[in-house]
Design brief:
The complex is a heterotrimer of chains A (294), B (338) and C (333). Chain A is mostly helical. Chain A is built from 14 helices and no strands. Chain B has 338 residues and is mainly α. Helices cover 77% and strands 0% of the residues of chain B. Chain B is built from 14 helices and no strands. In chain B, helix 11 runs antiparallel to helix 13. The radius of gyration of chain C is 20 Å and the shape is globular. In chain C, a hairpin with a 2-residue loop joins strand 4 and strand 5. Chain C is of the alpha/beta class and 333 residues long. The longest helix of chain C has 17 residues. An 8-stranded mixed sheet of chain C has the order 6-7-8-3-9-10-12-11, sandwiched between helices. Chain C has a 4-stranded antiparallel sheet with strand order 2-1-4-5, with helices on one face. Classes of the chains: A mainly alpha (294), B mainly alpha (338), C alpha/beta (333). Chains in contact: A-B, B-C.
Chain lengths: 294, 338, 333
């Protein structure tokens, strides 16, 4: 990396930051549990067609509302006779995608706004921060609802809405850490060597500001999954017959009197997935940001 | 301190102005014609043109904005497309229901959350601490609407203990007085001598309160714990102990008052978020508040209503943040005495 | 000298350890000391030598767990403090045993007025009304020479200067009907030199006015010279020398004591100081100290025996003892 060249550090065999983080992570039980849960859901998402016993969309009306562990339906079937287990597995695919894409959107814009605003400072920074304050003055759930109801209800729009509504938060986190770094010696050294603004911002400063952003992003994935489930529950996200967890809860709520599993299981799936990201994110924060530790 | 408050008040105006502008722009710049979206696919050109004129959409953007702004300042949020009612009126009718629910949820979250946070901190690294913090983490990872449904399933369907939704037993033919049903219940108890209204109001409040309060509870517990842990290490706690102040007093007065500062900020923020979280909870529990009304308005594509509701809730959110900021400076002598 | 007076507090063979994640730290090993009525005993040593742990063991302010008393007794007015229950020790704190701390900025609660904090001590122990307690607080402020006491009681800590805050701390320690023992943990370290002198004068003054004993913890031999009747020198959890203040300065017999005195700027009481000397080396890791003398690795006089066993007490005079195998080789100058 650029910065280590200019700082002229003798090359000793030291662990890379990644290796060091991993070393601490391994000792953090919560973070490892979280990582295990995340891995499980990611594998489920990738191999959904292989691991799910049936087609998640195939209806078998004669076998509707089959209880758990009956007739080969491990998690039972829903009101249209679709296999719950298969739907839950495919749901992981949707939720993981939503989480990653919407956080990706927030990160992309958040980083650009945060870095440029901190780097250039002055009036530009003031205006940007003012706008961010206004956006933060908006309860973000409402913000996503407004955006989706304008774009029209769909899964893609829900992703975009969740992504956009979180941009201010990421911009803030990035801006704060860039402000702390931008006067550092290695940045000034790089500047003296004639690095351009773009290079300074994104290749020199940004890599040193990633820790808090990574923590925020990990926790953000869990939050995005929760929010998208909420939007789908309100009919503003995924549309039937998509096996989205929030939508599955919404479309089964009239069956809580006689089929508890079709309401309970998708919720447990959401809970578990979000818990995984929260456990992992908390662990990362303890390791990467000792100030937050206690 | 007065200077501090005035400064915050001065900042309030541009923020509110920004919020209102943002809502306007989002609706105005949205892809597609709101009039067409509102009327649906089958509307003809004439109907659309009429609605556009009605909404002022045929005028230039700047002019629309000016009109809109002048109306909002006069608290005129326009008429609902769906009901033809004044939107401000609709909000005023529903706000007590929302605020009543949010209020009790927040009390529940604050009292239980702070207690658990303090207990966790003084029993650090014991099973009490692990259980509480594990529970809190589950709490923040849970979808509110799902928790609501599970509560209904367990307490209403299986155990048949509590109602599934609404605010009052419909067979009581109840006429609200203040629209805050607990207060109304007490008033009617005095007037008619029967506590049944109060009892019914409490029964209806119980589950939504728990559902809505769980996430803030978990967050408050986590914040209180970490804040307490930091404070308990401070020298002044040792001083208080060395002076023989009783341990309970050391914790609940000397430590907690210091630990409160970050907690207050979190409580305020959560209270604001609660109002928007209410949209899910109110929907699950058929709670006739603003959240459910916005949800219904979205379904009915009643844009003026959605716009009005969102401006209202955002304004309230901003005002709560201001109140919290003032409270913070009252509790913290370093700011108060500046 | 307070030789004839009765013993107020007697620590007998106290050992105290902390069970940390990285191993057991034997912070205090086999310490004994007596404090007589009206006497000032100073506990001297580098930071981390166990002097604060010893002092905090008296009123049980060490965090337990991870801290733990391994053995020993702390006799105070006829009872062993270590056998008391929490509410019993709470009754002694602030009435018979009070404490002042190093850093008056952080030792006073920032969200309460100093007056309220001191009044609370009165109210806790003597069932006074708030008004009575406030009046007594103002009296105390006069006693510790805080100007404009009526106004100052309503100040918050951050509104007072460092010296005023330390005076307020002292006032708080005096908020009892019968001050017996005051433990002063580095009371002047955080203060300017001039303020330091004022605070020490105040403490000396108060000691004579109210017959109280002071256990003063310090690393500063200058403070020792100013305040002490008797001195206990600690090193790495061990007591290495004990003597009256004159013997310590005139005829130190432990190499470590000598080192402490040599690192002191020229002082009238220690005429032979030639130049400022630092003690070479560092304090050993408290987890790995063996059976030998902990000072062995830094000691100019160390012999083979020193690494093997900790020396027994050698009584040099009526009030002077040393724990060193080679004390006879240590000569001042």
């Amino acid at each position: 990396m650029k910065s280590s060249e200019t700082m002229d550090i003798p090359r000793i065999k030291e662990p890379t930051p990644l290796q060091e983080t991993w070393y601490h992570l391994k000792k953090n039980k919560g973070a490892m549990t979280g990582l295990g849960i995340i891995t499980m859901f990611v594998l489920m998402a990738i191999f959904a067609p292989i691991v799910s016993p049936r087609d998640p969309l195939a209806q078998q009306i004669s076998e509707r509302l089959t209880p758990m562990f009956t007739n080969g339906y491990i998690f039972g079937s829903d009101d249209l006779g679709r296999d719950m287990l298969s739907r839950l597995i495919y749901g992981a695919r949707i939720s993981m995608t939503i989480g990653v894409v919407s956080v990706g959107i927030s990160l992309f814009f958040g980083i650009i706004i945060g870095v440029t605003s901190a780097y250039y400072g002055g009036t530009f920074d003031k205006i940007v921060m003012r706008l961010i304050d206004i956006m933060l003055a908006f309860p973000y759930i409402l913000l996503t609802i407004v955006i989706v109801s304008l774009l029209g209800p769909s899964l893609t729009n829900a992703m975009v809405a969740i992504g956009i509504s979180q941009v201010p938060r990421y911009a803030r986190v990035v801006r704060a850490s860039v402000l702390a770094e931008k006067e550092s010696d290695y940045v000034l050294a790089e500047k003296a060597l004639g690095a351009g603004n773009f290079e300074l911002m994104f290749l020199t400063i940004l890599p040193n500001c990633l820790s808090p952003t990574i923590v925020q992003a990990t926790l953000g994935v869990g939050e995005a999954i929760l929010n998208s489930a909420g939007l789908s529950f309100l009919g503003l996200g995924a549309q039937p017959p998509t096996p989205e967890w929030g939508l599955m809860i919404a479309s089964s709520k009239q069956f809580i009197t006689n089929a508890w599993w079709i309401v309970t299981l998708p919720g447990l799936a959401i809970l578990l997935a979000v818990l995984g990201f929260n456990l992992f994110g908390d662990g990362l924060r303890d390791i990467l940001d000792p100030k937050m530790r206690n | 301190m007065i200077k501090h408050i005035l400064k915050r008040l001065a900042l309030l105006i541009p923020t509110l102005f920004g919020v209102i502008t943002l809502v306007f722009l989002m609706i105005a710049l949205a892809p597609g014609d709101p009039a067409r979206i509102m009327l649906g696919e089958r509307a003809n050109a004439e109907q659309i043109a009429q609605l556009r004129a009605e909404l002022g959409l045929d005028k230039p953007l700047i002019q629309q904005y000016g009109l809109y702004l002048s109306r909002v300042v006069r608290l005129d949020l326009g008429k609902s497309i769906a009901t033809g009612q004044q939107i401000a009126r609709e909000i005023a009718d529903r706000f007590p229901a929302t605020i009543e629910l949010a209020w009790y949820a927040m009390i529940f979250a604050t009292v239980v959350g702070m207690f658990l946070g303090v207990t966790s901190a003084i029993r650090r690294n014991t099973w009490v601490d692990y259980t509480t913090m594990g529970g809190a983490l589950v709490g923040v990872s849970m979808p509110v609407f799902w928790l609501g449904l599970v509560l209904i399933m367990v307490f209403s369907v299986w155990l048949n203990l509590l109602p599934t939704g609404g605010r009052m037993n419909i067979r009581y033919y109840f006429t609200p007085i203040t629209n805050f049903y607990v207060i109304d219940g007490i008033l009617l108890w005095i007037r008619e001598g029967t506590p049944k209204y109060l009892w019914s109001a409490i029964q209806h409040l119980l589950l939504p309160t728990i559902a809505l309060g769980t996430i803030p509870l978990a967050i408050i517990a986590r914040t209180t714990r970490s804040s307490m842990l930091e404070v308990l290490q401070q020298d002044y706690i040792k001083t208080a102990r060395s002076a023989g102040i009783r341990e309970k007093r050391v914790i609940y007065r000397y430590a907690l008052k210091n630990a409160l500062l970050p907690v207050i900020t979190v409580i305020g923020l959560q209270f604001g978020l609660l109002l928007s979280g209410a949209i899910l909870t109110e929907t699950v529990f058929s709670w006739p508040g603003i959240g459910r009304w916005i949800y219904i308005s979205i379904g009915a594509r009643d844009y003026p209503a959605v716009q009005g509701g969102i401006i209202f809730i955002s304004t309230f959110f901003v005002l709560i943040n201001l109140a919290v900021d003032i409270l913070y400076s009252v509790v913290n002598p370093k700011i108060r005495l500046q | 000298m307070a030789e004839k007076k009765e013993i107020l507090l007697s620590i007998q063979n106290l050992s105290f350890s902390f069970d940390t994640q990285r191993g057991v730290v034997n912070a205090v090993r086999d310490i004994s000391l007596d404090i007589r009525k009206g006497e000032t005993l100073t506990l001297v040593g580098e930071s981390g030598c166990g002097k604060s742990v010893t002092a905090h063991a008296i009123n049980q302010l060490n965090p337990m767990p991870p801290g733990k008393v391994d053995h020993g007794k702390i006799m105070f007015r006829g009872t062993d403090l270590l056998t008391l229950k929490r509410h019993e020790i709470e009754k002694l704190r602030g009435t018979q045993i009070s404490m002042i701390f190093q850093e008056p900025m952080t030792a006073l609660n920032p969200v309460f007025t100093v007056g309220a904090q001191i009044a609370d001590v009165f109210m806790t122990h003597q069932h006074m009304t708030k008004q009575e307690a406030m009046e007594r607080t103002i009296d105390l402020f006069k006693l510790v020479k805080i100007p404009a006491p009526e106004r100052r009681v309503n100040s918050y800590p951050h509104q007072l200067s460092g010296g005023m805050r330390q005076r307020a701390m002292i006032a708080m320690a005096l908020a009892s009907p019968e001050p017996g023992l005051m433990i002063a943990d580095e009371p002047t370290t955080a203060l300017d030199v001039t303020i330091q002198a004022q605070i020490l004068d105040l403490l000396n003054d108060l000691k004579h006015k109210i017959e109280m004993s002071i256990l003063l913890i310090t690393h500063d031999m200058g403070v020792v010279a100013e305040m002490a009747d008797r001195v206990v020198v600690m090193y790495a959890g061990r007591k290495v020398e004990e003597a009256d203040v004159f013997s310590i300065f005139e005829t130190p017999r432990h190499p470590y004591t000598l080192g402490l005195l040599n690192s002191l700027p020229s002082n009238t009481k220690y005429k032979n100081a030639r130049r400022l000397e630092a003690i070479t080396g560092t304090v050993p890791d408290m987890r790995t100290i063996g059976a030998g003398c902990p000072f062995e690795n830094r000691c100019a006089y160390a012999s083979e025996k020193c690494g093997q066993e900790f020396p027994t007490e050698t009584v040099l005079g009526e009030s002077h003892s040393v724990w060193c195998h080679n004390y006879h080789m240590v000569k001042e100058g």
